[in-house]
Amino acid sequence: MDKEDFLVNLHYLPIILFISLPSVFILTYVIAVLLGHVEAGFPYISDAATYAPESCIFAQFINMIAMLMSFVVYIRYSQVKECSSTFSLQQSLPKWNHWALIFGLTSTFGLSMVANFQETSVIVVHFIGALLCFGGGTAYFWTQAVCSFYLHPLGCSLRLAHLRTALSTFCTVCFVITLITGVLARLAYKGTNPRKWYKEDGGWELHVASTITEWLCAVAFCVYILTFTEEFRDVRVTHPKVVYTLNRTRLSNEALNESQDSAMGHSRDTTTIT
User: Fold this and answer.
1) pLDDT value for 93
2) How many independent structural domains does the chain possess?
3) Is 267 part of any domain?
4) How do residues 221-243 score in pLDDT, each as one tens digit?
5) Which residues of 189-218 are buried (b: 16+ CB within 10 A; e: fewer)?
6) Membrane-crossing residues (predicted)?
7) DSSP labels for the chain?
């Protein structure tokens, strides 16, 4: 390991996210069911994190996970950028990589919004966050799939590029089904508490289809992040460099003024005896 290396073994980051994100979902779901806040059937992920204390646990862990995901997005962006410049790959690759960075950070920001703005508190912000999270994440996966094909064969295998394309397609289908069936189910709903949705409340089948595809989409997100593991083995992060620019003219003038003031003060304090 080089002395300037600051972070190594970055391939553990996707593995940590792959384990921690579903674990938080399952933990909050179990707590919500045990406390009677949701039914044990098929609630939305956010339904299981609506009331305290599970909402507090969900928000705390998801905020940390969102920060780690943002770091992963930036590392991937820097990796593709380095490969593009080193091997002089196609000129369109940096554009795709740039958009991937935007979509990835948008998705992580939306994830944080979903965790901190519960649907029972600020429903509009919660839904906007969900759209940014799943919509931005799906767009990120597609742009990364395109980048993977551009990086072949130097920076990515063709099999991995096809896998990412398949996962992107799956996420797109799940996202569309979740959105459409969720809206239709809500229009058909006649109950009083959507967190406890029963068959007699109307729109039950559409609701189940929406929640199941949301969970499947979340699992696909985790699997997609896991695909970065092998590529991150060769990535190293060095210590950040802090550049401190001094205004030498200003400092010289200030030093001169202080010197003059000191000299004048010394002359006033001196008493001459004849």
Assistant:
1) 87
2) 1
3) no
4) 999 999 999 888 888 877 777 77
5) beeeebbebeeebbbbebbbbbbebbbbbb
6) 12-37, 57-77, 98-117, 123-142, 163-188, 208-226
7) --TTEEE--TTHHHHHHHHHHHHHHHHHHHHHHHTTSS-SS---TTGGGSSTTHHHHHHHHHHHHHHHHHHHHHHHHHHHHHHHHHTT--TTHHHHHHHHHHHHHHHHHHHHHHHHS-TTT-HHHHHHHHHHHHHHHHHHHHHHHHHHHHHTTTTS-HHHHHHHHHHHHHHHHHHHHHHHHHHHHHHH---S-TTS--GGGS-HHHHHHHHHHHHHHHHHHHHHHHTTTTGGGG--EEPPPPP----HHHHHHHHHHHHHHHHHHHHHH-----
Domain-embedded: residue 155: yes
**CA end-to-end span of the chain, whole Å?**
74
Give residue 127's domain range. 7-238
For position 190, what pLDDT does the model report? Answer: 87
Specify the pLDDT at position 198.
79
Give mean pLDDT in consecutive 10-residue pieces for the chain, a chain of 274 residues.
63 92 92 87 85 90 94 92 76 89 95 88 88 94 93 84 95 94 89 80 88 93 93 80 68 60 53 41
* 91 CB neighbour count, 10 Å cutoff: 8
Looking at residue 219, its amino acid is V
With respect to residue 122, please indicate whether it lies within any of the assigned structural domains.
yes
Q: Whole-angstrom Cα distance, residue 218 to residue 25? A: 10
Tokens standing for 213? Answer: 């595809």
Q: pLDDT value at position 270?
A: 45
Distance CA 148, CA 140 (A): 12
Would you say residue 273 lies in a domain? no
Q: pTM of the entire structure?
A: 0.82
